[in-house]
Write a structure and sequence with these properties.
One of its GO terms (biological process) is pantothenate biosynthetic process. This is 2-dehydropantoate 2-reductase. Pathway: Cofactor biosynthesis; (R)-pantothenate biosynthesis; (R)-pantoate from 3-methyl-2-oxobutanoate: step 2/2. Keywords: NADP, Oxidoreductase, Pantothenate biosynthesis. The chain has 2 domains: about 170 residues, NAD(P)-binding Rossmann-like Domain (Rossmann fold), CATH 3.40.50; about 120 residues, N-(1-d-carboxylethyl)-l-norvaline Dehydrogenase, domain 2. Helix content is about 50%, strand content about 20%. The chain is built from 12 helices and 10 strands. Strands 1, 2, 3, 4, 5, 6, 7, 8, 9 and 10 form a 10-stranded mixed β-sheet that branches. Helix 8 crosses helix 11. The longest helix is centred in the middle third of the chain and has 22 residues. Bound molecules: NADPH dihydro-nicotinamide-adenine-dinucleotide phosphate and ketopantoate. Ketopantoate binds next to strand 8 and helix 6. NADPH dihydro-nicotinamide-adenine-dinucleotide phosphate binds next to helix 1 and strand 8.
Length: about 300
């Protein structure tokens, strides 16, 4: 059984596609959402039509013990709490995959579980538009890896890749997971907080010269942090990907924009807040990441 922990945008989209491919999937959700999903089913809203799926859902965390694969789809700021909650029920054979943004999820989860955890970087634009509807705005491919990987772990990654391939989800196993994690993290630092503060979609964001200048500054601060940590990045490729975000997902607002709109705690500490923290440690200036972190924290105080 594939366990989907967290029936939000990412959990519902990827879990829904895995279930639609005929694989056994059990969604773990909080009781209100579990009830709605179990009785009314899950909708995936594509641009042309809405796909309706009957799915299996529970709020009984103990059933994690039945899982062959566990996909962690809660926000990164909930990783440690949820890991402690499920640890007593997690079988030693269960493959664990973090499907979250941020640089620190695998390390956090593996510290609690006492074993390695794989990560998936998600290049998709998704949003919940009701308790049982996820709206797809584009993309969808995954990049998988295990931080600190050695060849011995390739079988587990291949098994996870096969699981996604069966559902026609494009997957790449990373040749350099640290580099890929940083690249995705920089993209999130560039867009998530700005989109949240302005409740602005990526196309509108990039069309405004003063905002794209801020994005350049955020990215340059992150590049300097990477250099100081001796992480080799393909800076031109990341800058290109940043331009592509507005082209591929013009109407998407970041997952942080969705959090602010719903008055939920954000992942700011994992994104621009982490850049700020790294800057302090490395004695490097990160003024723009620091200001964005403060502004998002002020938003959170207004809830
Ligand atoms: N949305 C997107 O397009 C993308 C998101 N991501 C990343 O994916 C990760 C997931 O994001 P996303 O799906 O958007 O977030 P959502 O907030 O939509 O989903 C997270 C879900 O987990 C649930 N949850 C939290 N704690 C528990 C718990 N103890 N038991 C069961 N369920 C729980 C939440 O419920 P509740 O809200 O009630 O707390 C919520 O439904 C994040 O790291 C995000 O940055 C990455 C790429 C794209
Ligand atoms: C890929 C992207 C930028 C899509 O919106 C995302 O990761 C997020 O919103 O958190």
């Amino acid at each position: 059984m594939i366990a989907i922990l967290g029936a939000g945008a990412v959990g519902c989209y990827y879990g829904g596609l895995l279930a639609a491919s005929g694989q056994e999937v059990l969604f773990f959700a909080k009781s209100k959402r579990a009830k709605i999903l179990q009785t009314e089913g899950l909708n995936i809203r594509w641009s042309t039509h809405t796909q309706h799926l009957k799915i299996q859902v529970t709020d009984d965390i103990q059933r994690i013990r039945e899982a062959n694969a566990l996909l962690i789809c809660v926000k990164a700021n909930q990783s440690t709490a949820i890991a402690n909650q499920i640890k007593p029920f997690l079988s030693t054979n269960t493959m664990v995959l973090s499907m979250q943004n941020g640089l620190q999820n695998a390390q956090r989860l593996s510290e609690v579980f006492g074993r390695p955890v794989d990560v998936a970087m998600i290049y998709a634009a998704l949003a919940m538009t009701s308790d049982n509807t996820v709206s797809y705005q584009g993309g969808g491919h995954l990049v998988l890896g295990r931080p600190g990987d050695t060849a011995a772990h390739q079988d587990a990654l291949q098994a996870l890749a096969d699981m996604f391939h069966k559902a026609n989800i494009p997957v790449k196993i990373s040749a350099n997971i640290t580099q890929d994690l940083w690249s995705k993290w920089i993209i999130n630092c560039a867009f998530n907080a700005l989109s949240a503060l302005g409740q602005i979609a990526y196309q509108d964001l990039m069309q405004q010269a003063h905002l794209s200048e801020i994005i350049n500054s955020i990215v340059n601060e992150c590049f300097a942090l990477a250099k100081a940590e001796k992480i080799t990045l393909d800076e031109a490729a990341i800058s290109h990907q940043i331009q592509q975000v507005a082209i591929q997902w013009p109407l998407q607002k970041s997952s942080m924009a969705q959090d602010v709109m719903a008055k939920r705690p954000t992942e700011i500490a994992e994104l621009n807040g982490l850049a700020q923290a790294k800057g302090v440690l490395l004695n490097l200036p990160t003024p723009i990441n620091t200001v964005l972190t403060s502004l998002i924290k002020m938003q959170e105080r207004l809830y």
